[in-house]
Specification:
The complex is a heterodimer. Chain A is of the alpha/beta class. Chain A has one domain: 3-Layer(aba) Sandwich (Rossmann fold). Chain A contains five helices and seven strands, in the order H-E-H-E-E-H-E-E-E-H-E-H. In chain A, the strands form two sheets. A five-stranded parallel β-sheet of chain A has the order 2-1-3-4-5. A two-stranded antiparallel ribbon of chain A has the order 6-7. In chain A, strand 1, helix 2 and strand 2 form a beta-alpha-beta unit. In chain A, helix 1 crosses helix 2. Chain A is globular and about 45 Å long. By secondary structure, chain B is an alpha/beta fold. Chain B has two domains: 172 residues, Aspartate/ornithine carbamoyltransferase (Rossmann fold); 131 residues, Aspartate/ornithine carbamoyltransferase (Rossmann fold). In chain B, 39% of the residues lie in helices and 14% in strands. Chain B contains twelve helices and ten strands. In chain B, strands 8-7-6-9-10 form a five-stranded parallel β-sheet. A four-stranded parallel β-sheet of chain B has the order 3-2-4-5, with helices on both faces. In chain B, strand 6, helix 7 and strand 7 form a beta-alpha-beta unit. The chains are: A alpha/beta, B alpha/beta. At the A-B interface, strand 6 and strand 7 of A face strand 1, helix 1, helix 2 and helix 12 of B. Strand 7 of chain A pairs parallel with strand 1 of chain B, so a sheet runs across the interface.
């Protein structure tokens, strides 16, 4: 997925968010790390389309992971910043890739501790399948069927210097480690 | 979506060379995915700051910063240590440290047991190791220990299978206090080249040793100051400067960490009178005028107002003494989080 394709998908998602919600009640919450630049781009686009800039939060879900005791390398705990009230808002959780759904489960747990949003929706750039929980996205940039032996990398110029989505085969050793 | 690269077997240009190349990029990309990739935390115990590297101290302080945000939420709790048990083993009196560890464990959703030597089988003659083995047999994951003997936590780390966190051992170290002092300074100042002066009973102070080790590793300059009888021999060898005349160092000091006179550990007369100590080394409003305008005042508490610190200084605008207490919870959350997970990880 090249930069232009990513742009188009993100723009479409922004339109869909505005279409399905009252723009002034929308809030965006990006999941660290790469949900954050995506949420920032959506915010700018929504501001352009609807004339109101939705508030933006950043969420680190590492403390809510269900595999904390068994992860091989210890997570770096990033900052969570949600400095607006969630009540009466439609909160759009934003992440780069939707895979097992466990990150989203953790993010919803974390979010609910900050308040009671009117509804929570999910926007992702790539849905690669292989869900392990009953979770689905409301806004999808691209459905990308993958095998579990593959890894999807989403890169944003804000973090990685350029925009792209690539699918690569997992290194055998890395795959063994992850089991 | 045309350029979606599928490095998968059947895709694009074939050949072993091409595949090897994609494998390299996959590894490199996986490295980049590592969320910033600082050194991973691997230590099961926290016994001293002497044994930590500059990077490891950095990991603890950064994690503490994230936990400090948790403490400002409406729901001041995260589920990270759900199902884990932390045992407080305190063989010496304590209010702040024990409560602080207790709150820290609860904020992480761990269960906590408080054990105090008074009223326990220790009074019937049970040894430290036996007491700790019994607590461990009740499936504690982490034991937080305070003891009057230097090296007590080291001994337990050797004897127990669970994580051990030193909450003060004799006159050796008090690593979480050292960390929270450094955290409090780091919130306000750049540590590199900063001049920190520890004033008072250096000889009997485990807080002083943890401060010296940690601060020097992070690039600060440390001076210890007190009556010659309360400055231990050889303290220069771990990197601290020694001064006996407080008024001569005060003008160059950025941070004053004022230590308590530890009457309970002093056997004999280390100075002629409390009054004389207060005159020579007590931090009064007048004395503070010699210091820099933005000097920061720390005290690990409990404090003796009117002896080592004047009440006006303790409550004044230079003081960060109560911030230290707030930060202590965040720092101890970081310590419990990393040590407890290190001992329940796949490698142990």
């Amino acid at each position: 997925m090249a930069a232009a394709d990513m742009d188009r998908s993100i723009t479409r998602i922004a339109h869909e968010v505005v279409e399905r919600n009252q723009p002034d009640s929308v809030a965006l919450v990006g999941i660290r790390t790469r949900g954050v630049p995506l949420a920032e781009r959506l915010r700018a686009l929504i501001a352009e389309i609807a004339g109101v800039e939705p508030p933006l939060g950043r969420l680190d879900i590492n403390l809510y992971r269900d595999d904390l005791s068994s992860v091989a390398s210890y997570p770096v705990i990033g900052k969570t910043e949600i400095d607006f009230r969630l009540e009466e808002r439609a909160v759009v959780l934003v992440d780069d890739v939707l895979y097992t759904g466990r990150t989203i489960r953790a993010a919803m747990d974390a979010l609910i501790e900050f308040g009671r949003p009117r509804r929570i929706q999910l926007a992702v750039l790539v849905d690669r399948g292989h869900r392990e929980l009953p979770i689905r996205a409301d806004y999808v940039g691209k459905n990308l069927p993958t095998s579990e032996q593959e890894v999807v990398h989403v890169r944003f110029s804000e973090i990685d210097g350029h925009d792209e989505v690539v699918v690569v085969v997992k290194d055998a050793a890395a795959a063994a480690e992850e089991r | 979506m045309a350029t979606t690269t599928r490095a998968n077997a059947a895709a694009t240009a074939a050949g072993a060379g091409a595949r090897a190349a994609t494998r390299d990029t996959a590894v490199a990309a996986a490295d980049r995915e590592g969320r910033g990739t600082p050194a991973p935390w691997a230590k099961r115990h926290l016994l001293s700051l002497e044994e930590l590297s500059c990077d490891e101290i950095g990991v603890l302080l950064d994690t503490a910063e994230s936990f400090k945000e948790v403490l400002t939420r409406d729901v001041k709790k995260v589920p990270s240590l759900r199902g884990k048990t932390v045992a407080n083993l305190f063989f010496e009196p304590s209010t702040r440290t024990r409560t602080s560890f207790e709150i820290a464990a609860k904020r992480l959703s761990a269960d906590i047991i408080n054990f105090q030597a008074a009223g326990s089988s220790v009074q019937k003659g049970e040894s430290l190791v036996d007491t700790a083995l019994n607590i461990q047999a009740m499936q504690a994951d982490t034991v937080v220990v305070r003891h009057a003997s230097s090296g007590a936590s080291q001994l337990l780390a050797r004897e127990l299978d669970c994580s051990v966190v030193n909450a003060g051992d004799g006159i050796h170290e008090h690593p979480t206090q050292g960390l929270l002092d450094i955290f409090t300074i780091r919130e306000r100042r750049d540590l590199e080249g900063l001049h920190v002066c520890l004033v008072g009973d250096i000889r009997h102070s485990r807080v002083a040793r943890s401060n010296i080790w940690g601060l020097i590793k992070l690039g600060a300059q440390v001076t210890v100051c007190g009556p010659p009888t309360l400055i231990p021999h050889g303290i220069e060898e771990i990197g601290a400067n020694v001064a006996y005349d407080l008024d001569s160092v005060l003008p160059t000091v950025d941070v004053l960490n004022i230590l308590r006179i530890q009457f309970e550990r002093q056997h004999g007369a280390f100075f002629p009178s409390i009054r004389e100590y207060a005159v020579e080394y007590g931090i009064s409003v007048e004395r503070l005028r010699q210091a820099r305008e933005e000097v920061l005042i720390l005290h690990p508490q409990p404090m003796h107002r009117g002896i080592e610190i004047a009440a006006e200084v303790a409550d004044g605008h230079h003081s960060a003494i109560l911030d230290q207490v707030t930060n202590g919870v965040a720092v101890r959350m970081a310590v419990l989080f990393h040590t407890t997970l290190a001992s329940s990880g796949p490698d142990s």
